[in-house]
């Protein structure tokens, strides 16, 4: 199928892009890699009179260390994120998550910012951003603001970003070498959106206790979720006393909007989510213990 007719705009700067958004209002939509938006337009699930293409704006691309955070431009492609050595060192969870994002053809055009702005509850980058307390930088004709990932995802494909705002970059906090990271998910075919999955970062202290834990869940609600109860349960506990299956069970507690659809019932997703969390915990804990030297 073909999209309904639209006017195509290719601004030369991000300021021009937000100017167009302010001028054209609700009839306009940002186009980045097009890997989510174009299928929706083609299937006539969405209509816009104007598309504003930001995919060639150099100021929205790049990967830079900024203090103890890593800044990634919203227009940086998923392939660039997944293959960048700096990302692998500073935010390994993003590198581990990338191969699960669709297929390589999609990752070659799809962008980090597009994935986060699209806010699919089964998307990998939204779950990583939420787990790591990333900060989302947005710009509109009214000015710039930062949004904490915890305040960003509000519903199915819904965020707190206003329609006239553009996501320009994302800042990810870096974890140190005493940490371990893992991403586990289950999909019927590789490249499909996950039925359920977990992303985990865990850090150990000098005594081998969990000093910090971040768990993001995907496919287990209308938005990506944070497994706060599981994070709290493991913090302060000696790493090797933590039972992975208990982390999985704790991660599923309190989830009250797990979807039920043709891919699986809520109960099935919950079982898969618990298993993926347990496996991710095992892998992340092994890496954290290997990187740490205990007193
Ligand atoms: C077959 C298939 C399988 C896929 N599998 C997965 C998967 O397993 N996991 C996964 O996470 N994703 C998956 N995707 C989606 C893919 O990751 C997309 O690339 C991504 O969701 C959107 O990025 P994009 O740059 O293509 O954005 P676009 O499609 O251009 O835009 C998506 C939405 O975000 C908005 N937007 C984009 N950039 C910005 C910005 N900077 N500021 C404000 N709004 C913006 C657009 O207006 C639009 O509403 C899949 C896609 C396909 C077609």
UniProtKB/TrEMBL annotation:
* Top-level taxon in the UniProt lineage: Bacteria
| Keywords per UniProt | FAD, Flavoprotein, Oxidoreductase
Q: Can you tell me which residues the record assigns to a coiled coil?
A: none
Determine if Flavoprotein is one of this entry's keywords: yes
Q: Which GO terms describe its molecular function?
A: 6-hydroxypseudooxynicotine dehydrogenase activity; FAD binding
Identify the SMART domains for this entry.
CO_deh_flav_C
For this protein, the record's PANTHER family field holds: XANTHINE DEHYDROGENASE SUBUNIT C-RELATED
Protein name as catalogued: 6-hydroxypseudooxynicotine dehydrogenase complex subunit alpha
């Amino acid at each position: 199928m073909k999209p309904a007719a639209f006017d195509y705009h290719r601004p030369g700067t991000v300021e021009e892009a937000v100017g167009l958004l302010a001028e054209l209002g609700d009839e306009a939509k940002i186009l980045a890699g097009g890997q989510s938006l174009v299928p929706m337009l083609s299937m006539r699930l969405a209509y816009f009179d104007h598309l504003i293409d930001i995919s060639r704006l150099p100021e929205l691309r790049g990967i830079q260390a900024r203090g103890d955070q890593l800044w990634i431009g919203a227009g940086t492609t998923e392939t660039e994120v997944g293959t960048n050595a700096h990302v692998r060192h500073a935010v390994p969870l993003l590198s581990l998550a990338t191969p699960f994002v669709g297929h390589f053809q999609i990752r070659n055009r799809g962008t980090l910012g597009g994935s986060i702005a699209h806010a699919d509850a089964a998307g990998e980058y939204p779950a990583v951003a939420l787990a790591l307390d990333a900060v989302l930088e947005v710009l509109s004709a009214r000015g710039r603001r930062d949004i904490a990932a915890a305040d960003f995802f509000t519903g199915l494909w819904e965020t707190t970003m206003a329609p006239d705002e553009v996501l320009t970059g994302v800042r990810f906090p870096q974890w140190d070498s005493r940490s371990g990271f893992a991403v586990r998910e289950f999909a019927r075919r590789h490249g499909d959106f996950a039925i359920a999955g977990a992303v985990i970062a865990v850090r150990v202290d000098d005594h081998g206790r969990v000093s910090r834990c971040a768990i993001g869940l995907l496919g287990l609600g209308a938005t990506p979720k944070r497994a706060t109860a599981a994070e709290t349960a493991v913090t302060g506990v000696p790493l090797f006393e933590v039972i992975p299956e208990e982390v999985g069970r704790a991660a599923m507690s309190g989830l009250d909007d797990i979807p039920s659809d043709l891919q699986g019932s809520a109960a099935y997703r919950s079982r898969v989510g618990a298993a993926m969390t347990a496996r991710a915990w095992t892998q992340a804990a092994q890496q954290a213990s290997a990187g740490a030297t205990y007193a």
